[in-house]
Amino acid sequence: MSDSAFLKDFHAVAAIGATGGNGVERQAATPEDGLTRAWFADWAVERGWPVRVDGMGNMFALLEWAPGEPFVFIGSHLDSQPLAGRFDGAYGVIAALHAAATIEDQVETSGERPAYNLAVVNWFNEEGARFAPSVMGSSVYAGLMDQEDMLAVQDLQGISVRDALSDIGFLGSDERPDAVGYAEVHIEQGRRLEREQLALGVVDSSWYTQKLDIEVLGEQSHTGATAMADRHDALLGAAKIVQMVHEVTADFAEEAIVSSVGRLNVEPNSPIVVARRVHLVADLRSGDPDIVAAAREKLVRDIGTLAEDQGLSINVRDFDVRPIQHFPEDGVELAEKVAARLGLGIRRTQTMAGHDSVAMNNIVPSVMLFVPSVDGVSHCEREFTNDEDMVSGLHALTEIAAEMVNGALTSQSQSN
Amino acid sequence: MSDSAFLKDFHAVAAIGATGGNGVERQAATPEDGLTRAWFADWAVERGWPVRVDGMGNMFALLEWAPGEPFVFIGSHLDSQPLAGRFDGAYGVIAALHAAATIEDQVETSGERPAYNLAVVNWFNEEGARFAPSVMGSSVYAGLMDQEDMLAVQDLQGISVRDALSDIGFLGSDERPDAVGYAEVHIEQGRRLEREQLALGVVDSSWYTQKLDIEVLGEQSHTGATAMADRHDALLGAAKIVQMVHEVTADFAEEAIVSSVGRLNVEPNSPIVVARRVHLVADLRSGDPDIVAAAREKLVRDIGTLAEDQGLSINVRDFDVRPIQHFPEDGVELAEKVAARLGLGIRRTQTMAGHDSVAMNNIVPSVMLFVPSVDGVSHCEREFTNDEDMVSGLHALTEIAAEMVNGALTSQSQSN
Predict the structure, then answer these.
(1) What ipTM does the predicted assembly reach?
(2) Between chains, do A273 and B262 touch, taking CB under 8 Å as contact?
(3) Which of A224, B32, B69, B402 is most deeply buried (CB count within 10 A of its CB)?
(4) Separation CA B209–CA B255 (nearest Å)
């Protein structure tokens, strides 16, 4: 496959669910997500690759050279945040399709049968915008989340994952292929590569992350006819918590921790009613688990004091705790070797964001590559990576996957 | 009609849309609102009173003794806030039905034809919870709001008033009866009557109220992968505004002003995305317009500073400005005379909350009565008024309406 065919495909997929600001909106299991999924399936089937859809909506396009052997997985996710960029996720899936096609051509040309089979994967609901938690499909595959629990998760309209997947025709029942390794390329969600003018990053570890589910309970009353002193305003309490979650980061070194509230829902949310209940989710992340623990402890203490001061009842619950993951050293070295061979600059880096590779790395040796992203922005329409950087990432992914299907990484890893 | 028949009807209607906590939920133009409307229509028709529904969903049950003459209106509203009390609105409508029945009996017994006709009215959407602004139906009747504009108002699901009324079968097209006066009884939304152990309040003026529509625009980004210094978090800005709106009241005498935010919506409202846009509504009210003006000025100034400090764009718009309304002195005196005759304690009071009577008072002399409400709470399930107080209010409304249909108030008012 040619680089120009890859770029043509990438820009064609960006037209699905396109937004006014050059972005896309293809939240998990929406009709737009269904369209990109159909595109993926058509592409694979045209190439002669059978496609399986499992009970969690994950899609696998199979290249089977070694019957009975497990598969090296390459891919990412086609779902997006609301009003998102074109690159996050989709780039990795489309690059994986083209990498697989190139490897297939090489296998046919050489006539040498690889040690393992290859599967291109589109993981369900990496973003977690419509259905929380994020990284859902790969986490279920990796046994970190329970499939039945995840199928029962509902969006804000009360629609379950099961029904939403079924509605778009992607609640499958196919057997899952066995994985022996995983590789993924993704835009960097940060500025390091851009600052240092490097074509590639290889992830050696992920940040420690956790969320706090916070429910603030006050008393519903009339905004116009309740004395200020008589109010127990759940929204006022929640507003103070939003600020606390922001300000707690100032207690630590710069860029050592990020923390914020992205979701907040008010009940009854009427202009002339003092809020009865506010539900919010705080997201805390750091390269150092002790920093998250210290920030969490301070927040829980301060929220307790706030509840007492304001006559509110506030429930705080830890969830979605994700420990630091170390990616295998031989995978990092493989990426460095391939980059050197291709003449591309590379550095080791951490990922602050969650990725399907972090879930998969729990069960098989995984390699996570980053390509530069302008200004380091993501989850917004102005997310941008230029064609040259996308093509460099494709070449690196192709070479890494080719070595992995030949057993290079896996057999080394098994001996570690 | 007997007091016990009134109480029986009141408690029967409280079963429609009943909530677990002894409250009701019958937001405007929902199926539950439709059920109370059908109850109202059936009650009137059984009594032989024709019912008209206008193009704004207002319902009028007509008692016509003097063909060609205008109508004294008595009533309130049957819609409620979410998880609301049983009394706010419904009490006034059901009391008005029973007052009208008693007056009809008196007219038949005496054989004397009143000067004016009588109409019992159920105003559409007084609460404004599902469809803003509040006091919608009576404001359209009084020419303060435009009917077409109001029919186009949408709820948070994008359903218009027009479609919602049509769905429950209450988008009417009947001619509106002409009003010559208005009387309403309502629970007090405050503690004055309870503190002073008085059976009745009569409103001599309404508070000055206004709202601020506030839109906070930041930049959408990834909560996990954006440095704190690079964020323009619309929710953080909004949280600070919620606090400002609360704290501005401390600049004035206690209970001189109330101010709060009851509605706040976050976009995209995803747990792992820094908010792009937050829309909120602040509600400011005082007996003194200068106090509201001073608080508003301080808020607008402080919000401007906040926008600059945080790199946000914040739009603030005044809306729903409602000047102080003075109720006619002869209406207040009529209420005082009736209370004395019935042996009920009464005081003059202001209303902090908006009411249909405040809208109607713009076009016809209006009388607004309050009965005590335990702890002064409203817009919540534990709102409570005892049967004795409800019956006292019913008797006062009946006598006031009887004098009004005989021209007492109206002809005095016209000579003022």
Answers:
(1) 0.76
(2) yes
(3) A224
(4) 14
Given a contact cutoff of 8 angstroms between Cβ atoms, the answer to whether A378 and B227 are in contact is: no
Which residues does chain A have within 8 Å of residue B228's beta carbon, measured at their own beta carbons? Answer: 246, 249, 254-255, 258-259
SS3 at position B288: coil
- B119 neighbors B60 (Cβ within 8 angstroms): yes
Contact B379 A269 (CB under 8 A): no
What pairing do the DSSP bridges indicate for beta strands B59-63 and B51-53?
Answer: antiparallel
Give the integer Cα–Cα distance in Å for A87 and B357.
57
How far is C-alpha B230 from the chain's CA centre?
A: 45
| pLDDT tens sequence across B209-228 | 999 999 999 988 888 777 88
Q: How confident is the model at residue B411 (pLDDT cuts 50, 70, 90)?
A: low
Nearest-CB residue to A81 (from B258, B273, B379): B273
Minimal C-alpha gap between B267 and chain A (Å)? 8
The answer to whether the beta carbons of residues B332 and B114 sit under 8 Å apart is no
Of B206, B75, B227, residue with least CA distance to B137? B75
Q: Do B268 and A221 touch (CB under 8 A)?
A: no
Per-residue pLDDT tens digits for A262-289: 999 999 898 888 999 999 999 999 999 9
Q: What phi, psi does B336 have (nearest 5°)? A: -65, -40
Contact B136, B126 (CB under 8 A): yes
Contact (CB<8Å) A224/B209: yes
CA dihedral B168, B169, B173, B176 (to 10 degrees): -70
**What is the distance between the alpha carbons of residues A102 and A109, in angstroms, rounded to a whole number?**
10
Of B233, B243, B258, the CB nearest to A236: B243
Judged by CB atoms closer than 8 Å, whether chains meet at B273 and A379 is answered as: yes
A210-223 b/e (C-beta count within 10 Å ≥ 16 → b): bbbbbebbbbbbbb
pTM, whole model, 2 decimals? 0.77
CB atoms B270 and A127 under 8 Å: yes
Percent of residues, chain A, with pLDDT higher than 70: 99
CA distance B251 to chain A (A): 13
